Amino acid sequence: MKIYSQGDQAIVVSIEKEVSKDLTGDLLALRSYLVAQSYPFITEIVPTESDMMICYDARDMIKHHQIASPYLYMKELIESIQLEIKYERNDEQLTQVPVIYGGQYGPDLDRLAEYHQLDNSSFITIHTAPNYFVSMMGYSPGFPYLTGMDERLFVNHTGEEKTFIPAGSVIIEGKKTGITTTDSYGDWLVIGYTPIELFNPHKKDFALFKLGDNVKLKPISENDIDLGGFKPCQS
To answer: What DSSP string runs through 179-198?
Structure first.
């Protein structure tokens, strides 16, 4: 575990291992522990795939808690926490996400299947076989990066040009799958679409997924589900 300063009011904890569900669990366990302690000077905790940034109010620590060196205090605090604290998760609990693959819903599927020397059916079978987990949130509110994709589908390129990409687009980037939560414009490789709402700012729990959640992608046809105002990708 590596701990280092990020400016004068934040510290980063980096667990230098390959991204995995256990690694995500370790970070979430650490975050849960710190939240439970209700330290008044910790202002924000931001976990990512392999590290976590803990923001603190250095002025408050010095003025009201007689802490001479906020960074050293935070470093010693984190080092004192035993990472044997386990994140409680239910690996058997999967959220199923229905996906319509190909055609206007996944305009890059044909090219990606050809790139991997697969037919579309085989590509979809490989893509939907794993149980994914949410290893990172980002890009847009509630946007889940799903780790666990079969290495046979890894890519090292993006789309040929930027296009309009609707919310609900299932994309591939590098070693991961993602699902867009808002309409956007970019060069994602879009292979499918889900009408499931992943982000709603008007709800208390505005994001469907959180870090560590387990996700199963389920292939369906466009006749199996309400498309929910689908707008196709376009240049």
So the answer is: E--S-EEE--EEEEE--S--
Residue whose entry in the numeric block shows the structure tokens 């890009």: 139
Helix 70-80 to helix 58-65 angle (10° resolution) is 90
Same domain, 210 and 101: yes
Q: For 157, left (φ over 0), alpha (ψ -120 to 50), or beta? A: beta
What does the DSSP 8-state code read for residue 214? E
**Shared domain check, 209 and 104:** yes
Q: Are residues 55 and 118 in the same domain?
A: no
Domain boundary among 20, 45, 80: 80
Residues 42 and 225 sit within 8 Å (Cβ to Cβ): no
Helix ranges, the chain (H): 21-37, 58-65, 70-80, 109-115, 120-128
Q: Which residue in the block uniquely carries the two structure tokens 């991961």?
A: 176
Closest by alpha carbon to 54, among 25, 22, 72, 78? 78
Closest CA to 231 of 107, 111, 141, 55: 107
The pTM score is 0.78
pLDDT digits over 47-106, tens only?
877 789 999 999 999 999 999 999 999 999 998 886 555 555 555 578 999 999 999 999
- CA dist., res. 191 & res. 205, Å (int): 28
The answer to the question of residue 90 being in a domain is: no
